[in-house]
Amino acid sequence: MEHIVIIGNGIAGVTAARHIRKQSDKKISIISAETQYFFSRTALMYVYMGHMRWKDIEPYESWFWQKNRIELVHGFVEKVDPKMKTLHFSDGKSMTYDKLILATGSRTNTFGWEGQDLPQVLGLVNRQDLEKLEKVAPDKNKCPRAVIVGGGLIGVELAEMLRTRDIEVTFLVREDAFWTNVLPRADAQMISRHISSHGVDLRHETQLDKILPDAKGDVRAVRTTTGEEIPCSMVGITTGVVPNIGFLKGSGIETDKGILVNRRLETSAPEVYAIGDCAQQRKPIGNRPPVEAVWYTGRIMGEVVARTLCGKQMEYRPSNWFNSAKFFDIEYQTYGWVFSERRRKEEHFHWVHRDDDKCITLAYHRESGKFLGINTFGIRMKHEVFENWLNEEKSVDYVIHNLDKANFDPEFYTSYHKELLNTYRNQIKRTVS
Fold first, then answer.
1. Average pLDDT taken over every residue of the chain
2. Is residue 431 over pLDDT 80?
3. What are the residues facing 30 on neighbouring strands?
4. CATH top-level class for 3-107+242-309?
């Protein structure tokens, strides 16, 4: 019986296993050094905040794996030998495979700061990070102040988590507004104001120089590149993530930032595939980054590789870009492409509500008027509607006038369509004149 081994039990690896089982009787093994069972990584914050228990973020009951004949192996693979089709574990054991799927996800990105290995310095990527956070920042008595370094989605999640336990937070962001490498400036500035409104000491244009220990070797402060010392008991490193591929050194499998794959998700080694955060497309797909650290792309890749391994060869062809997140009380969605800096012949329409907690930015082609993408904050939208509009290449004028049809908010929520439409008409009039 063909043996398929998957390293990594995140959304990509587990999706692959589930779909292989649906289509075949192959032997399936999933290896993970993080946890025994798959869990929803995006829900880590809610465990710390007390909204959910750990078992609540495990989508499948413990009996699911045995019933579906998916072997779970708890261990750390430290070496892959593609020529011998063998995996070597840190405890000296080994395992052979017929086909191998690498789904090892990401790890926290660090930049060699002095003090980054102190015991109260952590990221927020895996279960071990959450357990460490509970240990070093259980409450404001043990951790009166924390410093977060890096202004992305993980950083704002960590800030919200700490604030729920009344821990003071200083947030160091090198840009002049929050997440300006992704968001247009008007969007970023609104999010900056919102984060600050939740009692976060948000420091723009501020960078970490080093993390300072006390006499016991515990974190006592950080020093910025301007020489300022900020006292703290914990430091959260949220300066992005990078593919978790260190164990492949010497394997012969070609890597760059991630594991290099083609459209069929094949690596340079025969019978070895890579999916999810650790995979890097040799040729990027459209405007998509070559490494896509997004849960739904991992899920799609898992389905694609499962079909291929079950005799129905398939290429990875994702649909229109989308993503969603949460900035404290503001929900964020994006469909299509809205770049932080307008590209050639690209225009943006921006509307912000007077309460400063809702806004929309639409991108469109300056000459043709074709709708390119939308960012929406504080107003829920329907995915399928924007998927259709992007595929049908609707005009920005059509999208604006029909935006109420995309609204996902419940029936009795306030509608902002009329106000938004008036703003659009006024902006277009000023542009024409």
1. 96
2. no
3. 6, 72
4. alpha beta
The tokens for 432 are: 């024409």
Neighbours of 260 (CB within 10 A): 18
Residue with tokens 């949220």: 238
**pLDDT given for residue 264 in this prediction:** 97
Residues 6+ apart with CB under 8 A from 145: 167, 168, 169, 170, 230, 231, 232, 233
DSSP 249-289: TTS---BSSSEEE-TT-B-SSTTEEE-GGGEEESS--TTS-
- So what's the pLDDT on residue 151? 86
- Tell the residue number behind the tokens 């499962």, with chain if given: 306
Domain boundaries, the chain: 3-107+242-309, 121-239, 322-432
For the segment(s) 121-239, the CATH number from 3.50.50.60, 3.30.70.920, 3.90.1030.10, 3.40.1000.70 is 3.50.50.60
Let me know: does 5 contact 101? Beta carbons within 8 Å. yes
Q: Of 114, 178, 170, which Cα lies nearest the Cα of 325? A: 178
Strand partners for 374: 335, 362
The two structure tokens encoding residue 104: 């090892």
Could you give the CA distance from residue 346 to residue 369 in angstroms, rounded to a whole number? Answer: 9
CB 162 within 8 A of CB 146: yes
Q: What is the C-alpha separation between 345 and 339, in angstroms, rounded?
A: 12
Contact 78, 89 (CB under 8 A): yes
Amino acid identity, position 6: I
- Which of 6, 34, 17 has the alpha carbon at shortest distance from 106? 34
Between CA 2 and CA 14 the distance in angstroms is: 18
Strands 219-224 and 229-231: antiparallel
**In contact, 159 and 329? CB cutoff 8 Å:** no
As a whole number, mean pLDDT of residues 397-419 equals 89
* Alpha carbon of residue 78 to chain centroid: 25
Identity at 432, one-letter amino acid code: V
pTM, full prediction: 0.95
The tokens of 427 are what?
């902006």
For domain 322-432, give the fold.
Enolase-like; domain 1 (3.30.390)
Structure tokens at 355: 């309460």
